[in-house]
Write a structure and sequence with these properties.
Elements: H1 9-22, E1 31-32, H2 34-41, H3 45-58, E2 61-64, E3 68-71, H4 76-100, H5 103-115, H6 118-122, H7 127-143, H8 146-159, H9 172-189, H10 192-214, H11 228-234, H12 242-245
Antiparallel strand pairs: 1-3, 2-3
Pfam families: FCD, GntR
GO molecular function, one term: DNA-binding transcription factor activity
Keywords: DNA-binding, Transcription, Transcription regulation
């Protein structure tokens, strides 16, 4: 078996920047400073440039020749398309899971749903967001399709900066748990069609509530954030979320949620 190649400096920088973009520590629209990033990482500009090229290929940053490098900002139409795609991929995943889930997986999924009950989840580390993630992760693994999982996670990462406080929307948390119950029942019954429909509807409902929320901000989901240096001199970049969602605690919702 061939041994994996060790991560290069560019790989490590790419992963760090990707995590910061996904969690909005580097928010959409921010102008990235290659020299400043190199200084922060303690490397030359070459691995930083390589990392940014990788991120550009993944859609996380936009490189505009003779203008600059910016964290990608999604337009409402792009977000709608991503939600639509995610809905059907999640449906496919649940349908496959209904046919492939093991006895151990069934018990694990049932336990995850019980742990996600809002009152119970509130007393656990990470709250409902962590419990929701655990439920979805079990479904993903039960599908037995690693390529499908990669596509789902790619969309979730791209949309995550816009959904950091998704469950703070009125009624969304309770709705999400009830929708999970429908997915759970269909998967445990081995009903592929019902599981697919329930999972698709779950994402569609969440996306619709999100779009209704976003429409209240015609100027965009993120205020202009300028450059990295300007953000450092003013306030942490993630503080730009405050005008949209209200104050948030650093470190919350560190993974994609729905």
């Amino acid at each position: 078996m061939q041994k994996p190649y060790p991560a290069t400096a560019a790989d490590r920088i790419r992963q760090t920047l990707e995590d910061q973009i996904v969690n909005a520590e580097l928010p959409p629209g921010l102008a990235l400073d290659e020299a400043l990033l190199a200084q922060r990482c303690g490397v030359s500009r070459t691995p930083v440039r390589d990392a940014l090229l990788q991120l550009s290929a993944q859609g996380f940053v936009h490189i505009k020749p003779r203008v600059g490098i910016f964290v990608a900002a999604l337009e409402p139409g792009e977000l709608a398309n991503m939600f639509e795609t995610l809905a059907y991929l999640e449906g496919l995943c649940a349908g496959l899971a209904s046919q492939r889930i093991t006895q151990a997986g069934r018990a694990e999924l049932l336990a995850a749903h019980r742990d996600a009950e809002p009152a119970r989840a509130a007393s656990r580390p990470g709250g409902y967001a962590a419990a929701n993630l655990a439920f979805h992760d079990i479904l993903y693994r039960a599908s037995g399709n690693s390529y499908l999982i990669q596509q789902i996670m790619a969309i979730r990462k791209r949309t995550h900066p816009y959904r950091l406080r998704h469950f703070d929307q009125p009624g969304r948390l309770a709705c999400s748990w009830r929708e999970h119950a429908g997915v759970l029942e269909a998967v445990l019954d081995g009903d592929e069609r019902a599981a697919s429909q329930a999972a698709t509807r779950h994402i569609v409902e969440g996306g619709q509530q999100f779009r209704e929320f976003a429409e209240r901000f015609p100027q965009g989901l993120y205020a202009a954030v300028g450059s990295m240096r300007a953000a450092e001199q003013a306030a942490p970049a993630a503080a730009t979320l405050a005008w949209l969602y209200g104050p948030r605690t650093a470190g919350r919702h560190t993974k994609p949620v729905n």
